[in-house]
Recover the amino acids of this structure.
């Protein structure tokens, strides 16, 4: 509940009566200060009038004033600039490390706010604040979605920056790893990232003009050229066909030449995947893109429209894979091995857009960052269980910018019950405040 008391202070959800210190002085809150989520006082640079005197300093908040001593603040000089101690229960006087007696304010959490917070925590229906969503103004919804979209891109930027750092500042490689991860389309995302991080692009670069060698290298590094990776039911047929054996022999040569080690094939997941989404097909498509030097960072940054991106990602498969999705198991019916429109949209949203934003931040190029938002506005909204849930609550995603914001909202706020940081949660908590 201390977190909720922080929230009441930060958003000024004070009871209607005059605020008073425990020694009878009137308190006027001019500025609640900057919320500090790290070590030190809870709010920095607050402005409060106490008994008519203006104080500028920090504010510390506890459920009980005796927590001041339980947390050792009486010996910590970082708390010497606290000008007001705010507590739900005042059960002790408090002093700082200089021995100064601090003014204390007993602040009650309004009953309606406490009740609404409990409702949010207990609700089994997501989002728990759904009853008030239809009542929110368009401005409230739009401004929150805009902030969430930026937050999501910043979060994706952190992941891309981390990849670039692990790759010794090689942004071209970081772009490839990001693209590979998104070729996993969620289910195999982690496996594709592990594969791409383990794939030596230096080795691949030596054989970029030979698609067969690239296919052998890419599939081999994925652990898929190990006979044990072929289901027993298809193993005999795979060996009889001969193509697996050709790739395997080529990979063994390349692995010896470049001292390569494959990842564990058990990382790959196949359950409930459509054949065109099997790792073999996606890896062969990536080999095709790499072979023709498509979807590189420079090509990506030259894309101005979604049609440019579609042309960049247009890729097929080699003849064997036109009739197979795994080794030794010919498809019952021919299925297109081109990326579908929905797959292209997801690659644009999760690879192209974040790369524009992240690399724009890295190079301090605002035009690239702005173009990331522009591309999202050009794309139709995603249709998935999250966007359908929000539509039932009264928020319909019109563009990919909206759907990305709503995905961020559910995953980072609703799923974590982090309602105290959500603007919809704020509207829910403050209604009927007494």
């Amino acid at each position: 509940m201390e977190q909720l008391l922080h929230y009441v202070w930060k958003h000024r959800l004070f009871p209607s009566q005059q605020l008073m210190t425990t020694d009878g002085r009137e308190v006027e809150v001019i500025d609640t200060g900057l919320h500090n989520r790290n070590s030190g006082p809870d709010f920095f640079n607050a402005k409060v009038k106490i008994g008519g005197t203006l104080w500028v300093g920090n504010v510390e908040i506890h459920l009980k004033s005796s927590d001041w001593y339980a947390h050792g603040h009486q010996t910590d000089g970082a708390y010497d600039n606290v000008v007001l101690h705010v507590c739900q229960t005042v059960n002790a006087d408090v002093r700082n490390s200089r021995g100064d007696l601090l003014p204390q304010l007993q602040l009650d959490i309004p009953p309606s706010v406490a009740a609404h917070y409990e409702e949010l925590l207990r609700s089994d229906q997501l989002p728990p604040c759904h009853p008030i969503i239809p009542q929110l103004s368009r401005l409230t919804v739009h401004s929150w979605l805009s902030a969430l979209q930026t937050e999501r891109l910043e979060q994706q930027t952190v992941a891309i920056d981390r990849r670039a750092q692990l790759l010794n500042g090689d942004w071209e490689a970081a772009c490839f790893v990001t693209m590979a991860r998104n070729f996993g389309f969620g289910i195999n995302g982690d496996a594709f990232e592990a594969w791409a991080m383990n794939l030596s692009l230096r080795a691949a670069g030596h054989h970029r003009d030979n698609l067969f060698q690239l296919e052998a290298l890419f599939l081999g590094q994925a652990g898929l050229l190990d006979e044990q990776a072929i289901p027993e039911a298809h193993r005999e047929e795979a060996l009889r066909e001969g193509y697996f054996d050709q790739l395997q022999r080529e990979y063994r040569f390349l692995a010896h030449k470049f001292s390569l080690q494959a990842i564990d094939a058990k990382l790959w997941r196949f359950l409930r995947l459509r054949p065109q989404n099997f790792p073999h097909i996606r890896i062969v498509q990536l080999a095709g893109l790499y072979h023709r030097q498509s979807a590189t960072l420079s090509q990506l940054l030259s894309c101005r429209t979604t049609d440019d991106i579609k042309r960049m990602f247009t890729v097929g498969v080699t003849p064997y894979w036109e009739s197979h999705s795994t080794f030794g198991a010919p498809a019952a019916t021919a299925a297109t091995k081109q990326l579908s429109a929905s797959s292209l949209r997801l690659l644009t949203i999760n690879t192209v857009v974040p790369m524009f934003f992240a690399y724009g931040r890295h190079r301090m190029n605002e035009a690239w960052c702005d173009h990331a938002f522009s591309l999202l506005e050009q794309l139709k909204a995603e249709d998935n269980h999250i966007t359908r849930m929000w539509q039932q609550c009264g928020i319909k995603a019109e563009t990919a910018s909206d759907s990305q914001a709503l995905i961020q909202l559910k995953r980072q706020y609703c799923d974590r019950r982090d309602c105290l940081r959500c603007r919809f949660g704020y509207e829910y908590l403050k209604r009927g405040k007494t």
Observations:
- The chain has a mean pLDDT of 93.
- The first strand starts at residue 19 and ends at 20.
- The CA atoms of residues 397 and 403 lie 5 Å apart.
- The chain is about 50% helix and 10% strand.
